[in-house]
Structure formats: C-alpha cells, structure tokens
Amino acid sequence: MAVNSGWQPPTNAGKFFATLAALVIVSWGYMTIPSGCESTSPTRSRTALPGSPLEKKSDGSSVVAAGTASATTDNVEKPKTPPPQERPFPPTDQPNIRVRVAAVRGEPVQLTHPTGWLWLKGENAQAGRTFRAPIAVYPVDDGWRIVEANGTTQASNFRLKESGALQVEAPKNSRGEIQFGGSAYLGTANIVRRTDIDANASDLVFIVPLEEYLPGVLAKELFKGWQVNTYQAQAIAARSYAACEMEWWRKRRHYDVVAGQASQAWVGATSDAKSLDAVASTRGQYLVFDGRVVPAYYSSSCGGLPASAVDSIRDGTWTQIAPLNVTEKGRRTQCCEKSPAAKWQATFSIAETVDRMNDWSKQAGRKDLGPMNGIKSFVVGDRNSLGRSMTFFITDRNGKKFTWDTGDFRAAMNAGAESSRDSLKSSALEPRMDNGRLILDGRGYGHGAGMCQYGAEFMAKSGKSARSILERYYPGATIVTMPETSSSSVTSAALVSSPKP
Known about the structure:
The protein is an alpha+beta fold and 501 residues long. The chain has a domain at 344-442. Helices cover 21% and strands 24% of the residues. Strands 2, 3, 5, 6, 10, 13, 14 and 15 form an eight-stranded mixed sheet that branches. Strands 1-9-8-7-4 form a five-stranded antiparallel sheet, with helices on one face. Strands 17-16-26-27 form a four-stranded antiparallel sheet. It is globular.
C-alpha cells in the first residue's frame, strides 16, 4: 500500500463538492461519534484484556489484584517468533514498558488532555500535527480518520494515509496526562490497528518509563491501609515481573503487559504517596537468581496452599528455578488465613458445569476435554507436594473419562460466568457432588505462585522487612540494585548490593 504521510481534508474535488462533502462528513460524525471522552456509552465494545505470554496454563491471571476477579483472555495474539529461552539480565538503564490500556473494537479511541490540545504523528509520517482535544481516532482502510474537537460544534475531520501506528503526545512542557475513559495515563500513547481482529479494531498502548509505571501498579494492587514494607516488597516484585514480560515480548508484539489482572493491574497516573515512596525507595532493585531476573509472580491469596510456577503458570527454563518452586519447607498453612478469600465455597448445577466445560473445550480446540455427557464422578486426581489440587478426574454418564487441569477448569467456569459471584477465585479446589450439584470448597484467590499479597501484609504487620518477605516467597533469590546508565560497557556484572529495605 502506498503511504502518503500528509494530513488531508476530506476531499479536493472542487469547492462545491468539497464544501458539500465536508458538511456531510461532519454531520455524519455528529451522529455516529460518541461525545467527548465518555466511558459509559452503551455502544462501547472494549474486549477483555489478554493473558500474559508467560502463562502456559489458563488459571486466571499472572497477577490477581486483591479483591478483584480474573480477566478473561480473548483476542490473544499469537506471535510467529518463539520466545527467548533465557530470563533477562537486570536492566542497566531505565527501560520503557509498553502497556496496553484498552482493546477497542467497533468504536473510536477517544483521548483528551487538560490543555485542550494533543499532538499526533503517523509511524511513517515525516512530521506530526497538533489537534484540538478531545479527539476521536478511527481506523480506516488506508490509514486513520481523526476528528478534532470531538463532540463540539467545531468538530473537524482529517484523514491520514498511514499503514503504521498513530503516536499521540501531550503538548511539550505541559502539565497533566493524556486522558482516556475518564482516567489519566502517563507516557506517550500509541494507537495500533488490529486488522487481525477486524477493520474497526485497534489497541491503545501507553509507553511509560518503568519507574513511572510502577506506582500505578502498587496503587491498584494493594490496599491503602497496608504496611510500607508490603508496598516495598510489591514494588520489587512488580519491577522484576515487568522486566521479564518486556524481555518475553520484545520484538514479538506491540505491547509488553496489559493494564489489568491478566498481567498486573495499573491505575495509570497516581498521586498515592505510599506507592510513590515505595517505588522511589526501591528504585532499580530487582530479584535475581543465577544472575538473571526472576519472573516474580504474585497473587492476592494462596489460601495456605501455594503452587509452583511450573504447576500454575508455565513449564520451561523461566520457571524451573528455586525461587518459583514450592517445597514442604515453604509450606504456608497460616500465610493468609485472614484474607476474605482464605476459604470459600461455590456451587453449580451439573448441567451448568457441563455446559461451561463443553463450551470452553470446544472454543479452545481441546478435543481431549470434551464434549462430555453429564457427570457421573468428579474427583481430585494429582496434587502438588503441599496438597493443592492440580488435576481432576471426571467420568461422564457414558463412562468416558477426562483429565482436566485445575487451571483449565477454572478458566472454563469463569469464561461462562456472568459476574464475579458466578466465578471461581482460584484453582485450589476440593470438589464433591450432591443431589445434582457440584460443590467446590476453594482456598485463596489467584494462581497461588510466588508472593501471596495477604501473606506479605501479615508478615509486614509482624515487623518483617521487605527483604524478609521476598526471601520467604522467592527462596534463593537475591535483591540487587542496578546503576542507571546508558553506557553499553556496563554489563550484568555491575550489580550493586542493595541496602535492606
């Protein structure tokens, strides 16, 4: 496709037709473009954010925020290039992380800024242009349609012939952040066309310096009243996790993480002092094992029955390391007993259970998991060394036997759920059948690998330092502080021992 990098008005077919076309387009824009930056439009069609690539299993998300439900994983991209075999070295300068904030389908990306202006540039364009905010951006066949002053009487349409992404920045030296859906986000925004989904699909991705990104993670992941040491431990874990995600997706996808539980939750810009202080006081600190960064998975509550990363995340060299394995020595029977999700119960009819399992296995292309005709028996198959259920053995009414990974079962049940009350908080489940219903006694919230956030808070309240918390949940890992420099001569050997946080 030939690319014309110039910004163009709607038509050049003569004054009369130009005026007529402009009036038609603007009038059509008023009828079809939601006004301003509304986030509650009934026509809005943002899909759920995709799962992390570091997960082999479908057990909810890599990171489950305290008190929130797991995200589903539709519209996941399938990169053609394989992931790296080795974990990354700690960064020797501050990297930028690419955060997908929204998967926008069948509607425009609507952005604004407190100054009333935004600067846009096509990926292949020679120069950019300033537009009056709010703006609405639509993907079109040969590029982008941009409506400036969207939702006002001064609304104007522009077309940019551009095959690549659209970059959006705030005016130079201005205060305030780019706003989307009622929230403010740090960094530069990229709007990426998703023709692999459909012609009207796009992703909104913010590119943010890592240390500026992290406070928004802590502000979303932890409760405001929690201890400073919990926040510091979370900051180091979140930084390490992010570094691994960046390495995993580098050159393979247009974003590294999503701003939801499928990666780690992110509120965007935040003024929360505790979150800002925790990131600042641990700046540049990473969890390292054998010289490489540990993918520091964490969940809300392990329920006293943790899982190894191999059990619940993925198998491979990234997870087959001591800090992510569970042993009897590390048993956490009283780790998070005060968590609201330490113990819970869910009940489903057998018919509903079978419907959800059959629907999920069909969509996932898992012929080994279905279809099943009712359920005759449903029992735990394998357990890990601490007694957490890993598989279920299921026999249907025809006598056909199925072996379900507990994470896949949780994903199947949650895919068919209409609300958080109709879903499973974790895959640590003890099933029993009674009078046509499946009763599931559950423990914890999330995948159970790595740090337990409620357990970390319990330790912090007991006077334990952030270092002690991390030593418990990632045994064998070391905290290192990396000097920030852009010099190519600095290598992974330049590790600086960190003071005890």
